[in-house]
TrEMBL record:
GO terms for biological process: DNA-templated transcription. Residues 10-67 form the RNA polymerase III subunit RPC82-related helix-turn-helix domain. Its main location: nucleus. This is DNA-directed RNA polymerase III subunit RPC3.
Length: 506
């Protein structure tokens, strides 16, 4: 496992669950699958603390367990990818808000905070939150419909359960039960809200969690659509979006290549839309432009009924990975180094002398940049030996080439390092300015309490004056710094996601 990734995971777990849970999680990250007593022995923590930590990690799907050979002892395994996904929670919530509205956003937010929850409990909690605001009048029936919509769209899935009473249960879930909704009694929810008495709801024991895979499909499609929108225009982006939408009807979501999609289906859908009149008029031209694009997203697969097209997702993300890496070379070194990198990409295997001739860069500088790219692991060297003739000396040739999966993994390591630096800097800012941040929170709390009691504007102004102008300037500077660090973190996560998509398809 990567050392840089380990540092990032340690910061995330420590920030959300504390140092004890971090110690247990990082032991499993470093040493792999282990039983409970091994964890207790090697971490030096009390048995009770280790059990509590494992419960937390299992609840948030950061650790899973399976029975040992004798089936009386559990082996625990750390899921590093799910820890990284915790940085992506705001994106998931924003995606649901944009597609389904505020109520669905709250449902997903509550489930992410709890790890998993029953449908009745999460609906009851969201209703309580919405009831505090008179403007947000919503019924239990509406919230139930929102929950069902999320399950139907596969953004929520059921958690596996155990049917046997064993020391280490085998958690199972049939394929048909993944999105099977148990009964949700609206009448009991209404009575419970009015009386405040807890009920044993019919769906007790049926737990739901967020389906990260479904969110990643949307994020993947968004990257593809955004790429074509930037390269051409919104009409091309809409055409690609509809192609991807129709792909899901006849192809597994994560297939490298889709089954053929009849282009006449897309044309019929566009005729019924009113938002893209130019796409309707110039439909054939847009199809030809996207087909001839270097990204190789779609290719024709037949001539019947106007032709069918296949979507080559693997090819598309390979091109995206190339572009990301070329941009990294440009920013890390310079435009001449990027030119050499593109030349090696074009030729696949090339001798150093050819680089100097074809790159139109002075020989000395071309040699320096080539070996600098090699030192930074953007280029690799392949040595070829020629068999000697007679008693003559053997000859060897040095060829530069690019191992794309290796370079993508190296860029991922740089992203993890950058994430660690960002999170460390943010923590440092909080520690260095702890006094003034705590003072601002106290003043805000007092101000909210006074406003709730009906205080006048003059009284509220007096409370605000507890923070002096110099302190206000410092707080504004801290706020700008925090926003900048958060923005960079989100952009780094976008790069990580794109490279992970390439490696998944690779």
């Amino acid at each position: 496992m990567s050392a840089q990734l380990g540092k990032v995971l340690a910061l995330i777990i420590s920030d959300r669950f504390g140092p004890v849970v971090e110690k247990v999680g990082m032991y499993l990250f470093q040493y792999g699958t282990s039983p409970l007593l091994y964890i207790v022995k090697n971490t030096g923590l009390p048995l009770g603390k280790v059990k509590e930590s494992l419960c937390v990690l299992i609840k948030y799907r950061l650790v899973f367990f399976v029975p040992n050979k004798n089936e009386n002892i559990a082996n625990y395994t750390f899921i590093a990818d799910n820890v990284l996904l915790m940085l992506r929670y705001p994106k998931y919530i924003h995606l649901i808000k944009r597609k389904f509205g505020d109520e669905s956003e709250m449902i997903v937010e509550e489930i992410l905070q709890k790890g998993y929850w029953t449908a009745s409990d999460v609906i009851q909690k969201v209703f309580q939150r919405l009831s505090k605001n008179v403007d947000n009048a919503v019924s239990f029936g509406q919230l139930k419909d929102k929950f069902v919509s999320l399950v139907t769209a596969k953004y929520l899935v059921r958690i596996p359960y155990s049917e046997e009473d064993r020391p280490v249960p085998n958690l199972i879930l049939q394929e048909g039960e993944l999105h099977s909704i148990s009964e949700i009694d609206i009448q009991q929810l209404v009575i419970s809200a009015k009386t405040g008495q807890p009920f044993c709801f019919p769906d007790q024991g049926v737990y739901w969690a967020v389906n990260f895979d479904r969110f990643h499909q949307d994020m993947r499609d968004k990257i593809i659509v955004a790429a074509f929108t930037r390269k051409f225009d919104e009409n091309a982006g809409e055409l690609v979006r509809l192609l991807l939408q129709q792909m899901y009807i006849r192809t597994q979501p994560w297939a490298d290549v889709s089954n053929p999609v009849p282009i006449i289906e897309i044309k019929d859908i566009i005729k019924k839309q009113t938002g893209f009149p130019q796409l309707n008029v110039f439909f054939d031209q847009y199809v030809n432009v996207i087909e001839q694009d270097s990204c190789n997203l779609i290719r024709k697969s037949g001539e019947a009924s106007g032709g069918s097209f296949q979507i080559f997702l693997k090819e598309a993300f390979t091109q995206f990975a190339w572009e990301v890496i070329e941009q990294c070379v440009l920013e890390k070194l310079d435009s001449k180094a990027a030119r050499i990198f593109r030349l090696v990409k074009l030729k696949q295997y090339i001798e150093p002398d050819q680089i100097q001739q074809l790159a139109m860069i002075p020989a000395k500088e071309a040699k320096r940049l080539s070996y600098q790219l090699f030192e930074e692991n953007f280029l690799q060297i392949q040595e070829l030996r020629k068999a000697p003739v007679g008693n003559g000396p053997s000859k060897s040739f040095m060829l530069f080439h690019i191992n794309l999966p290796q370079v993508a993994q190296m860029i991922l390591e740089l992203c993890y390092k950058t994430l660690f630096n960002i999170m460390t800097r943010r923590s440092h800012e909080k520690v260095m300015n702890k006094r003034i941040i705590d003072k601002k929170q106290r003043v805000d709390t007092i101000s909210m309490g006074m406003r709730a009691q009906g205080a006048s504007e003059d009284q509220l102004a007096d409370i605000e004056e507890m923070i002096t102008p110099p302190e206000r300037e410092i707080l504004e500077k801290i706020d700008r710094t925090m926003k900048k660090l958060t923005l960079v973190e989100l952009e780094i996560d976008d790069t990580i996601f794109l490279l992970q998509m390439y490696l998944i398809y690779e």
